[in-house]
Amino acid sequence: MKSAYHWHQLWRDGGREALTSHGPSGSRCRLSPRCLEKLAACLDEGPAAHGWVEDQVWTAARVATLIGRKFHVSYSVSGATRLMHRLGFKPAEPRTPGRRARREGRDRVEGGDLGGGRRARAACGGYICFEDEAGFTRRPPRGRTWGRRGRTPVVTVSGRRSGRLSVAGLIAIRPGSRTRLCHRPRTHRAGKGARRSMGERDSIALINGAHQLVKAPIMLVWDRLNTHISHTMREMTAEREWLTVFLLPAYSPDLNPIECLWTHVKRTRPTLPSSPWTGSKPSCATGSSAFSTDPTLSTVS
Questions:
Q1: Bridge partners for 220 per DSSP
Q2: Dist. CA 16–CA 19, nearest whole Å
Q3: pTM of the model
Q4: Average model confidence (pLDDT) for the chain?
Q5: What is the number of alpha carbons within 13 Å of residue 267 lying toward its C-beta?
Q6: Contact, 135 vs 166, CB < 8 A?
Q7: ∠ CA(200), CA(203), CA(206), 5° rounding?
Q8: What spatial distance separates the first Cα and last Cα of the chain, rounded to whole Å?
Q9: Is 138 helix (H, G, I), strand (E, B) or coil?
Q10: Helix (H) or strand (E) holding 91
């Protein structure tokens, strides 16, 4: 009501012209239009051109520091944020040059049991195992940067060819017995034509180690990854009478237990217990240590 009385007073004193907007209230911008143009040009040059070489993202704190260096004007972080919005910039997730979305073509397999329905009865009393792989890039993390509206910012990330770290995990469950967790790390070196994920022999080595650990038949449940349903994997599973493989549907909206573990690992990045398996029997670890890059089997109960 106070605003209405104020507007009425203005209209009565000056007419409709007195009600015309005079622009946003508050103090004026501390930078001139020419300085704003120079600031936008500096931002387009990237952080590396102004001394920030550890990563290539613009933050509000860096923008405030840049304004102080170039124009000798002090800006707070919140003030720099509002100024960036005024210049037409917005925070966005950057992308690296040449990065494209990859689609994996998966072979279709009739039925859900690679064993053709056999050995299911013999597997009764064994362990139900869930297996899944996860990959961790060794590139430095990327944050959010400021970029012009409508254009995805492109940043240069150092260490692109530092390789990847793959981890295959298997959780073995049986009522009345202790649950076992086995994982097998593998480092993939950077290079043209080098493999960047786990292969059939890596997966079967993890399964062999889990079988020697539990000393019982295994009913393995996993997804339809190309290495899981390949001809080589079919031959390997057919040679093992104690192994029965069940395939998940092509689209499975729920996470299996090992996928829930990978979700937790990627979000929090904890250290998993590990111990190398170097002989005929895998060892069991109860302590906590960092991931090992040695492609051996590690277990925890």
A1: 129, 245
A2: 5
A3: 0.47
A4: 75
A5: 6
A6: yes
A7: 150
A8: 69
A9: coil
A10: strand 89-92
